[in-house]
Amino acid sequence: MNISGKLDRTRRVVLADLVALRPAQGTRRGAIRAAVTMTTMLTGLAVAGRLDWSIYATFGAFACVYGGSRPRPERWRTQAFLGLLLTAAVASGALVGLSDQRRWLAIPVVALWATAGAVLSDRYSWRPPGPLFVVFAVATCSAIPTTPPVVLIALGLAALTAAFAVLLGVLEARWLPGRSWRPPPPGLPPPPAHRQRIQAIRCAVAVAIAGLISTTAGIPHPYWAMIAAVVPLAARPLRAQLVRGVHRTLGTLVGLAVAAALLVAPLPVAVTIALIAVLQGTAELLVIRNYGLALVAITPLSLLSMQLANPQPVPALLVDRLVETLIGVAVGLVVAIVTRDRTVSFVDGYAPR
């Protein structure tokens, strides 16, 4: 096949991947669990008058997204382990928040967590894969100024919410088992050991470079760039990484338009909490089907949650989110291209003979 034919085939394959809607059986219950966890946590903090602490509890709630959508005998162990890991990430970020130099200190700390998350994800076959959520937790929490008592509060809230999320999964498996559990269809085989080492290193490098660029530029939320940098790297091979990067960019653009409409409206706290729950559930329903569509819900979800805890000027917030997403995705894709597995076909995603 000539170069023109290869380029045309590559273009058609990538476009097909961008608009593909993948099957995602069993996601409805996971979406309900996520929405219930988020609603319960935010309502409790609203009643206590401490919505400024909600960001710490939010990351504990992410434990419920792991372990697959269907109840299975060991799912609760996976979620409990991830709950502990997310709690540790929150505590680590809160400790960084004690320092006046937290913006710079966060870069190596988040990079270390990206390495650890990548190693553990490959070793234990996390679903969803990659270090995104632990990076999200430590990077976001490291940007918030804290005191020693607040560090303990952050630790407790994350642990409590994670425990509640795991409990909901256990209760679902016991009371609403539905159809008997079947193993998921086989996916890609685990990468070779040397590719796993490369994955850990490149996640750290991508986070560090994105953090240095955005922090040096003085952008107010450099952690958004660090988070976006690991998004393409969660997929493999290069074709899937490029699609994921494009999904993150286009989905964020559309999601920012939705966020702008919601953020400018004078919504009562109760309505905002309800919207966050709906967006959380929507994101869980869509994230397996099409990551770009899920970002249309994830972006306003993230910004509404931030405004609930720490209100900021909306126009600057939207611009910062876009700029830092572009920085992070660009860095992640460059790292992915430079470190790609050259024995694997870009279009077909297999090792040619």
Can you walk me through this structure?
This protein is mainly alpha-helical and 353 residues long. It is built from 13 helices and no strands. The protein starts with a helix and ends in a 15-residue tail after the last helix. The relative contact order is 0.14. The model has no long low-confidence stretch (mean pLDDT 87).
- Tell me what portion of residues adopts beta-strand conformation: under 5%
Low-confidence stretches: none
Q: Based on helices, strands and strand pairing, what is the structural class?
A: mainly alpha
Task: Spell out the helices and strands N to C.
Answer: HHHHHHHHHHHHH
Helix content: over 70%
- The gyration radius over C-alpha positions equals 20 Å
Number of strands: 0
The global form is globular
Distance between the termini: 16 Å
Task: Figure out the total of helices.
Answer: 13
What's the rounded overall pLDDT mean?
Answer: 87
For the biggest sheet, the summary is: none
